[in-house]
Amino acid sequence: MNITTNIKRNILAPICYGLVGNSVLKQKKYEKYLINFEYCERDKVINYQTKKLKELFIHSYKNIPYYRTLFGKLHLDPYKHDSIKILKQLPYLTKDIISADLKLFKLNNYNRCDLRATSGTSGRSLQFYWDRKDEYKHYASDQRFYHYAGYERGVVNAYFWGHAEDFKRARKIKGKVKNFIDNILYFNSYMINEDVMYDYYRKLSNYKEYIIYGFPSSIYFFVKFLFKNNFILYKPITVLTTAEKLYKYQRELIEKYFNCKVFSLYGCQEIGTLGSECECHNGFHLDETHHIFEIEKINSLGQKKGRLVVTSLINYAMPFIRYILDDIGELCSGMCSCGRTSLKLINLEGRVTDFIVDEEENLINFGFFTDIFEFSKGIDKFKIYQKQKGKIDILIVKNMHFDQTELDYILNRIKDLSGDRLNIKYKFVDYIKTSNSGKHQPVKSEIASKYI
Description:
Elements: H1 3-19, H2 24-37, H3 42-63, H4 65-73, H5 83-89, H6 95-100, E1 113-117, E2 127-131, H7 135-148, E3 156-161, H8 164-171, H9 173-181, E4 184-188, H10 194-204, E5 210-214, H11 216-228, E6 239-241, H12 248-258, E7 262-268, E8 272-277, E9 284-286, E10 291-297, E11 306-312, E12 323-332, E13 344-346, E14 356-357, E15 363-364, H13 367-373, E16 379-388, E17 391-398, H14 404-418, E18 423-428, E19 443-445
Parallel strand pairs: 3-4, 3-5, 5-6, 6-7, 16-19, 17-18
Antiparallel strand pairs: 1-2, 7-8, 8-9, 9-13, 10-11, 11-12, 12-13, 14-15, 16-17
């Protein structure tokens, strides 16, 4: 580690974070507590969550209009000890419920919070309030997950990102100072083309010690560009992906080029980082210190799979209790090969919008299509879009290696596997736009939520 990094991490960071009420020493102490918590016996975890949930219920009943009305309507007593049992009696919380009247969810006269918004990748942007009172807990939790991959904050971070609000904050004085101290280099994912990627390559060529973090699709396209041009970069400490599903073919190509393991993080903007892969790479270890996790069962997907439901135990400015995420997967308990006992999210199948509905109302996971396109040499990008049951449109960006026989094989392969249940149309385009957050979503259905 060079002298500049040491100065930033050990001198500037403690001073600057301390000025905004985020003690680095306090953060590191809490980080050790989180690491130990991951190895706790299950009964200790449940007892801890029961206590914290009761405190959250009492706070929400006293201060949050929505929950005060809800507890009264259901004749539930937030002061009772069996808070886990009470939790199961509360209805699920959705984006639509929050958006209908945001002020019902906010702690009144509370100044230590920010009004933020999600990127709207799933089709619906959500405004929410973020509690800044215990910001150090979020930093400590993230750092704990970074340790899985061998990364400690302060090393140069090539940040492939695209959320407009984050860029807005980064341009302010406070954001500039933070990014300088944390050694963050922003690589904008809103626009990925050859000229832009060459500029990213040129900048990263200056660093021997760095990590890559961000959208897997953006990192994948960057790596394809590096392979295509025979450009060589120094091996990063690790590659961390987040905010999108990491596909198998993306992981394989990224690991092949950089000769290091890719670690996938899991989370959402409104709650934060929820989990991470460990060195075993067989699911996401979930943060049970700050959250309680459930699965909303969906019969059409089997007995165990469903939408993930999360209760945040630390956002007192705007409590998320039994909040439904659109991500589909299943929960797994028991000790991992790494020794951690924390609950894991496994078999993550992406969001509801990642499923295609065929003519017979069967659900087809996005992996069906990404596996078929995986080895295509003549197609740079594709996007499958659905507005109507049994029909899909495929947008294709081809390159100089494109061969019609390759496309015919892909279309025939889809037809062989789906039968006559999908009507396919395709169109060649010069460019496929990313979402408002800079993400590339290869499969998107506007109707899948009606069939799940």
